Amino acid sequence: MKKLSKSTYGFIFAIIALVILLGVTLYLGISGWFYANVTKLESDVTLGQTLNLNITETGAKVASFTFPGSFLPGQKLDQNINITNSSENDMFVRAKAVIFDCSDQDMNLELGISEHWTENGDYFYFDQPLLKSNKISLASYVRLRPDKYYNSTKTYVFTIVVEAIDSNLSRSEVWGY
Question: Which of 7, 32, 171, 175 has CB 3.0 to 4.6 Å from 92, enough for a Cys bridge?
Answer without folding.
Answer: 171
